[in-house]
Amino acid sequence: MSNRISIKGVKVSMDHYINGKRVSSEKKFTVINPNNPSEVLAEVSRGDEEIAKLAVSAAREGFNVWSEMSVDGRASIMHRLADLIESNVDDISLIECLDMGMRHESLRNRVIPRGARNFRSYADIAKEYKPRKWHSNTTKNEIQRMPSGISVIITPWNAPFMLSTWKCAPALAAGNSVILKPAEWSPLSASLLGDLIDEAGFPAGVFNIVQGIGEEVGAILVSDPNVNRVSFTGSPEAARHIGKSAAENITPFTGELGGKSPLIIFPDVDLEVAVAKAVGQFDDSGQICLAGTRLLVHSSIKKEFLNRFLELTAEQKLGSSFDDETEITPMIHPDHLQSVAGFVDRARINGDKVLCGGRVFKDDKLWYEPTLIEPVSNQSEVVQKEIFGPVLTLQTFDTESEAIELANSTEYGLAGMLYTKNRGIAERVGRAIRAGTVWVNCFLIRDLTAPFGGFGLSGIGREGGDYGIDFHSDLKTFQILDDSLSE
Ligand code: NAD
């Protein structure tokens, strides 16, 4: 029986998608609307061991078909999927906004269309791949990139559609089949993706979606010995569990994990631009892994920076994710709001100074005020740990080396942002920052062919472009002894 419900006019399946069919579980989990947390949006099928087994066996069958198709054949289906995402942007944005609470305007115009770009980009990268061929002393050599099998993809609740497509596309482009396990707080846009996969004409079993709880069905999937790759985005805590399970089977594993990125502002910048960028770190209520949550400002401009920052922050509009004027959207879930509020409460006890915000906006709602904290020391928890909410810290530096030392003083290393007009500073400081991506005078500009990942607690392995396809592939060195073969 089809278990579809209509959410604001969009039909969404509440079930898993396995072997090209919808499959239901008796047990369910509940999804709420962050803009109105007392509203239950959906009761979604909650996967278990049986469902995981079904998905793995379907994915093996799917792999046998997909891996035998030509690269061009696979790419044309992926482009068809991208076309379908583009023609369904309105429905996907609506569901994602209800489910996750990100700004509708930004979903509609940027974030969901990026899902289509993810598939197009990887389809083209796979097509353009030129295997390295060379001749050494006595042999002709070639690197062969072979599909490796089944990729299990585990994604987090923030920007779920964009991140799921970003992680599934390289696996499919490599010729692997996929089992996607979306996060339990925002699983609905993945369900819509299942419908589009079907319509695009992927052979059955190539792309499967298992809904459910991370510690339950997620843990079962990543420990299945028949799985050939595990690609995870989420917290370092979950990565430790998943990495251990993958290690049991020697299954290659990548983790795109949390961040605590520095945003460094030198005194030669246009302060208006730098302040706007700093306040912009509150976007999506800080639920962005790459956000520059540690503001490191040259001490000579601290006073003026702070005045302007507080002025602009006071103008930030908290409101509905559907309102184009809204700047601060709700947190995704009451548990997450509580976690964010806990960091600020402990900061107060620690003696850190809350310069603005620091409160839940309305008792039974999920908005947290945009907050700036001046820590008593660099060791304060709010400086050292990822909060993943609208909470920034402000620290000052006097010299380049102090800026670098502060920038590199946490266990994370996902990104770094640097604002200066001086080329020498940009190159010296940029090179010294230990992070997977460093942006100078810009933020969140992504070239999908570039490697993406983090240092330290921010991740293991790299995805993006050929790096992503290589991860999902088995690379083989193929050598033929000169003059050893007849025609
Ligand atoms: P999370 O680690 O709690 O969950 C992520 C996913 O893992 C979910 O689907 C969850 O169900 C699953 N999961 C949890 N425990 C599991 C287990 N034992 N076995 C298998 N699966 C398990 O993370 P979250 O709270 O959903 O997301 C927020 C985190 O993700 C933050 O740390 C954020 O920085 C990070 N993140 C990183 C990036 C990046 O690209 N580096 C992007 C977005 C989010």
Written description of the protein model:
The protein is an alpha/beta fold and 487 residues long. It has 2 domains: 4-257 and 458-477, Aldehyde Dehydrogenase, Chain A, domain 1 (3-Layer(aba) Sandwich), CATH 3.40.605.10; 262-440, Aldehyde Dehydrogenase, Chain A, domain 2 (3-Layer(aba) Sandwich), CATH 3.40.309.10. Helix content is 39%, strand content 22%. It is built from 15 helices and 22 strands. Strands 16-17-18-15-14-19-20 form a 7-stranded mixed β-sheet, with helices on both faces. It has a 6-stranded mixed β-sheet with strand order 11-10-9-12-13-21, with helices on both faces. It starts with a strand and ends in a 6-residue tail after the last strand. The mean pLDDT is 97. Bound molecules: nicotinamide-adenine-dinucleotide (NAD). The site of nicotinamide-adenine-dinucleotide has 30 residues, from helix 7 and helix 8.
Beta strands, count: 22
Class from secondary-structure proportions: alpha/beta
CATH class of the largest domain: Alpha Beta
Task: Summarize the main sheet.
Answer: 7 strands, mixed
Mean pLDDT: 97
The third-level CATH topology of the largest domain is Aldehyde Dehydrogenase, Chain A, domain 1
Strand ordering within the main sheet? 16-17-18-15-14-19-20
Query: Strand content of the residues, in percent?
Result: 15-25%
Poorly predicted residue ranges: none
CATH superfamily of the largest domain: Aldehyde Dehydrogenase, Chain A, domain 1
What's the CATH architecture of the largest domain? 3-Layer(aba) Sandwich
Percent of residues in helices comes to 25-40%
Radius of gyration: 23 Å
How many angstroms separate the termini? Answer: 59 Å
Shape: globular
- Number of helical segments with 4 or more residues: 15
Q: Could you tell me which ligands this complex binds, including any ions or cofactors? A: nicotinamide-adenine-dinucleotide
Kindly give the count of domains.
2
